[in-house]
Each structure stands twice: as C-alpha cells, then as structure tokens.
Specification:
single chain, 384 residues, alpha/beta, 5-stranded mixed β-sheet, 14 helices, 5 strands
Length: 384
C-alpha cells in the first residue's frame, strides 16, 4: 500500500504534453526518481536524437543533481499527457501529478520545460502545487545555411509522417490534384481550375466559420432543437425572397431604369427607390422574422421555459406593431408630399399597445407568484 507524503522537499518536474515518451519508447508515466528518469531520457534520445523532450529531461536531471549537491531535499519526476493533446492531455497530467503528491510532500515545483507550451502547462501544475521556478531549455542551432535546411527538413518530415498534419498537408492537396488531373485528361482545363478554386473556397469557409464543429454538434441535438433549426432556415429563405421581391419591384419602376442610364440621378431618386424596396420586401422580411420567433416559441414551450415563451411572444407582437410604421414610411419615401405625421402616429399607437399588454402581463405574473404565499399563510392561520 502506498504511503502518503513519505518525503518532502522540492520537485523537479518535466512535462511531456504530447506523450512522445510513450509513443517512441513505450515507457509509461509517471516516471519518478533520478535513475528512472535517466533511463527514460536515454531511451528517448536513442529513439529520436532530435527530440526536444529528451533534452528537457536531461536538464531536469542536471537541476536535480545541483540541488542535491547543495544538501537540499528534492525529487525528480516526468509526467506525460496524450498524443492528441488538449483537455484530455491536461487531465492526464493532473492525475499523474496527484499520484506524485501522494508519495512526496512538495514544498515547491521547479518546472523544466522546452518552452513550447509553458502558458498551457503552468496553470495545470500551479493548481496542485506552487511553482517557484520555470527553467526553459532551448536547443542551440547553428545559423549556417546547412543547419537551417536541416531544421526545415525536420518540419517537412513531421508534415509528411505525422497523421495530425499529413492529412491536411498531403491528403487534401492529393484530392485536388486527382480532380484536376481527371478533368485535364478530358480536356476540361478551365473547368478543372474552377473546380479546384471552388473546393478550396468551400474548405476555407468550413474552417473559417468552424462549420465542421457545428455539424458535429448537430448530431447531439435534442428533437426539440430541430424546430429552432427549421425556423432559422425558414427565416433565411424568407429573407432571400424579400430581397428578391424588393429588387424586382425596383426593376419595374421608371426611376430605377433612369438611374441605370444616368447614375448621377441616384441621390435624387434614392428615397423613392428605397420606399419601393421596403414596400415590396417588408411583408416577406417580417414573415421570416415571425417564423424565427414562432419556432423559438415552440421550442421553449416543449422545454418548459415559460419566460422564453413570453419573450418571443413579445417579439412577435413587436413585429406586428412595427409593420405598419415601416409600411407607412415606404409610402412617405415614395411620395414626398405625403404627411410624415402618419409614421409618428402609427409608432406612438404601437408603442402604447405594446406598453399596455406587457404591463398587464407583468401584473398577472406578479399576482400568480403572490397567490401560493397567501394560501400558505391563510392555512397557517387556520391551524393556529
């Protein structure tokens, strides 16, 4: 049985976040003690002489020897994460740190790092034990051209053989080259260029907006969430129709044709054209927003969130009351001689109706909240 806190002193800690130690040598972590850490460093250096983690372990051993030679109590250990990195790696590092702390009462940690992911690892270690020093190990490289080529070659090798990078560096370009070669074979050079650019554009959009992550989340959606998705797509469809109807309405006017022939008249005709666009697009745009709100009302009703049902209902009511001021605005823009007070009056009327309905709703909600307390108090009085 492991005895907790059998020793105390400083802990010289080396962290291999991507678990190269196990991947390249088969040595499991945590590795505790000078002799075991030395074996691990030698095995890793032999397996991959260019591995930065091996240099960090040797530096940790040197630091340990220096402290012990000064008569200080110290221990040395290696902890590792996972090959994939990320949260799972940090959780594994935390678990192994806890195992070490069960055997060794740590007064402080001397963190020996290769300097690559210090900002990620320090909080993980600091949450378990105080870090009193961070020693970064940077491998010295010659500045000669030959050394530079060697470093570039090393990273190219990583891009080719490391699955984390090769699928992007080799896989996707390979698909594009295959498509391009096939189309060129059938004398479709222009189509090949268009196809490659099209697929590149799709990939840039997917990665730029994280659509792949969003698609992964869709699989975990609840059935009620599909109502929201349907309402969102419905809203976008109605918006497209709204813009289409607006531009069709513009195209049917003499003013629009005049502006196309003489762009200098745009400033003069712009209010009229804007009024025509609003008049033709307003109903479809408001319908799209209404579909969005109705979908969210149904979703909130199924989920049992009454306050959201109320919020989206108020949204629909606001849309209805704003429809008439915007419609009146379009008429004022089309006809400068029309009285603009009609817009102001419809806004004030809508605001008054909205205020009365919301105030009435709040009063009803407040009364319902007070009713259970009154009944409870009356019951207590009767029992007395």
């Amino acid at each position: 049985m492991m005895t907790a806190n059998t020793r105390e002193g400083l802990l010289i800690l080396c962290v291999d976040r991507d678990n190269d130690l196990y991947q390249k040598t088969g040595i499991s972590s945590p590795v505790i003690g000078r002799s075991e850490c030395l074996k691990a460093a030698e095995a890793l250096a032999i397996a991959d002489p260019e591995e930065a983690d091996a240099n960090a372990i040797f530096a940790a051993i040197k630091e340990y020897d220096g402290l012990v030679s000064k008569g200080m109590k110290a221990e040395i250990a290696i902890v590792t994460g996972t090959f994939e990195g990320g949260i799972e790696a940090d959780m594994k590092i935390r678990r192994e740190m806890s195992t070490i702390l069960e055997r060794f009462r740590v007064e402080g940690v001397i963190f020996v790092s290769d300097g690559v992911e210090d900002e990620v690892l320090v909080p993980v270690i600091q949450s378990l034990a105080p870090i009193i020093s961070v020693k970064r190990i940077v491998i010295k490289h010659s500045r000669s051209v030959e050394e530079s080529y060697m470093i570039i070659g090393r990273y190219l090798k990583m891009l080719v053989f490391d699955p984390r990078y090769s699928k992007y560096f080799l896989g996707l370009p390979g698909v594009f080259l295959l498509i391009f070669a096939t189309l060129v074979y059938f004398n479709l050079v222009s189509e090949a260029l268009i196809g490659v650019l099209f697929f590149l554009g799709i990939i840039f959009i997917i990665r730029g907006f994280s659509l792949d992550k969003i698609a992964g989340q869709v699989r975990r959606l609840t059935p009620s969430s599909y109502i929201r998705i349907f309402s969102i797509f419905g809203m976008f469809i109605m918006f497209v129709i709204a813009f289409y109807r607006g531009f069709v309405g513009l195209g049917n006017t003499i003013e629009f044709k005049t502006v196309m022939l003489d762009p200098s008249q745009l400033l003069e005709k712009f209010p009229f054209l804007l009024g025509v666009f609003i008049e033709n697009a307003l109903l479809f745009m408001w319908s799209g927003a209404g579909i969005y709100y109705v979908g969210h009302i149904l979703h909130s009703f199924i989920k049992g969130t009454a306050y959201k049902v109320f919020r989206y209902t108020v949204g629909i009511l606001t849309l209805v009351l704003l429809y008439f001021p915007f419609l009146e605005l379009s008429q004022v823009l089309k006809d400068p001689n029309r009285n603009p007070f009609s817009v102001v009056s419809t806004i004030l009327i809508g605001l008054s109706i909205l205020f009365v309905l919301i105030s009435f709703t709040y009063i009803r909600v407040s009364e319902k909240r007070k009713t259970p307390n009154v009944e409870k108090d009356s019951g207590n009085i009767g029992s007395v």
